[in-house]
Amino acid sequence: MSVIIKDVEKGSYADKAHIKSGDTLVSLNGNIIMDVLDYRFYQNNEKIIAEIINSKGKIKKLKIKKGEFDEIGLQFDTYLMDEKRSCKNKCIFCFIDQLPKGLRDSLYFKDDDSRLSFLFGNYITLTNITEHEIERIIKMHISPINISVHTTNPELRVKMMTNKNAGRVLEVMQRFNNAGIKMNSQLVLCPDYNDGDELRRSLNDLLELENMECIAAVPVGLTKYRDGLAALKSFNKDTAGNVLDIIDEYAQKSLQKYGDRRIYGSDEFYLLSGREMPNAAFYGDFLQLENGVGLWSLLKSEVSDALSEINDFSSNHRVSIATGVAAYPLLDEIANMCKNKCTGLVCDVYSIKNEFFGEKITVAGLVTATDIYNQLKDKDLGDTLLIPSSMLRAERDMFLDSITVDELSQRLNVKIIPIDNDGYALVDAILKI
After folding, report:
1. Is 192 exposed, middle or buried (0-12, 13-18, 19+ CB in 10 A)?
2. d(Cα 339, Cα 313) in Å, to the nearest integer?
3. Strand (E) or helix (H) holding 142
């Protein structure tokens, strides 16, 4: 396979070697270039022989001398230099299968691409991975790899993911482990499927992998759009508590074996069980924030640190915050912490019920502009309305229901400011510093 070069950066090593837009990149130092991982890995040499085919079909071998980790200077049609690979599973708990019709097309794409795991931290199932990809990960020592495991029971994994190849996950992870590849794993738990004794089995198997850095358990998310899908239950106070008990049991085994706990329940399990959220020190290096593990504690800790650096003052600033039902207690507590620091500050926090997906969905990242508008249209929102940036797509301009931030701002007649999960930024925005 070869890749067509879209552009060449002016003044770059490639430009100086007379590589042109429209040329085809075949190999670097004899290594065939198939995609971005090959390109990024094999360009990390001081001396490179680039084999290209020019626009006239002539094969050329061009010599390049550069700093070891310097970029050559080539650009391609897509970041991956290839198409994204879609998921071939039909998981009984898949959130995308629970989306209503009429959302933007990109939301319905299920990626399961090992390259995105390395480049962007995406989670992959390993059910669709080829032997070539496995060997390449080991050869390039691509690390860490983020894996959606769910269960290590081969028969149960096949059943839950509706893919005959799903049962080989432990075999592939063992190969990565033996090669020194670091891994993080995710277990989406469904009551009466992979919790209880099945969870114990999975945790026991995963703890045998010394290069498994972190294991996160998260509860299944169920929308109201499940017609024709498997009958699944939500966790309740007791079943969520049982999950945390099992996690703590195996975290203690991890502490004894490796010196760190490695196994964590998501913040949502603590909220569902009614148990006290652990402090920030509990989560170590916060390796699974993207799975909602430690977000609550990290934000609260950062807010406390930020406020400790500010002297008491007065202000007539008025601000509102919109968040999901799950995060409301924390944001309300943070608002009160800020009001204690600033006399005269008005900070109203609004818990937005998820009418769009169903009230079982409580996380802020799945709140839509439609629900915010319907529930806040008659409120005095003050000078600004703060929202978590997780409500928006990567460009930070549009909600899940395709309404833009500017459109919602105009409809509510208030300035809207997206805030990352950063306690310092949140304090600055609330206090208008």
Report:
1. exposed
2. 10
3. none
Rounded Cα distance, 26 and 367, in Å = 46
Question: Which of 138, 147, 137 has its CA nearest to residue 184?
Answer: 147
- Residue 98: its pLDDT value, please? 94
For residue 241 the two structure tokens come to 């508590």
What pLDDT, on a 0 to 100 scale, did the predictor assign at position 120? 67
* Residue 118: predicted pLDDT: 65
Torsion on CA atoms 258, 123, 276, 254, rounded to nearest 10: -10
Cis peptide before 278 (omega within 30 of 0): no
- For residue 229, the 8-state DSSP code is S
| Cα 280 to Cα 159: distance, rounded to the nearest angstrom | 37
Beta bridge partners of 388: 419
Domains of the chain: 3-75 (2.30.42.10), 96-292 (3.80.30.10), 299-431 (no CATH)
Cα gap 291→265, rounded to integer Å = 9
The helix (H) or strand (E) run that includes residue 277 is none
HSE on the CB side for 263, CA within 13 Å? 28
- Return d(Cα 123, Cα 295) in angstroms, integer: 18
Angle at which helices 154-161 and 169-178 pack, to 10 degrees?
120
Q: Are 405 and 418 in contact (CB under 8 A)?
A: yes
- The DSSP output letter for 291 is G
- Give the strands of the sheet with 212-219, arranged side by side: 145-148, 183-189, 212-219, 263-265
Helix (H, G, I), strand (E, B) or coil at 168: helix
Would you give the end-to-end CA distance of the chain in angstroms? 54
Q: What is the mean pLDDT of each run of 10 residues along the chain (433 residues)?
A: 85 92 91 85 91 90 91 83 79 94 84 70 88 90 93 98 94 97 97 98 98 98 94 97 98 97 97 96 92 95 96 93 97 97 96 96 96 97 96 93 96 97 96 86
Contact 199, 243 (CB under 8 A): yes
CA 123 to chain centre: 8
Nearest CA-CA partner of 174 in 159, 185, 158, 190: 185
- CA distances (Å), origin 13, targets 26, 77, 123: 17, 20, 34
Q: Which of 137, 135, 115, 133 is nearest to 124 (CA)?
A: 115
Beta pairing partners, 318: 346
Task: List the structure tokens of 341.
Answer: 């620091």
Name the residue among 392, 244, 388, 397 with its Cα closest to residue 328: 388
Closest CA to 217 of 261, 268, 173: 268
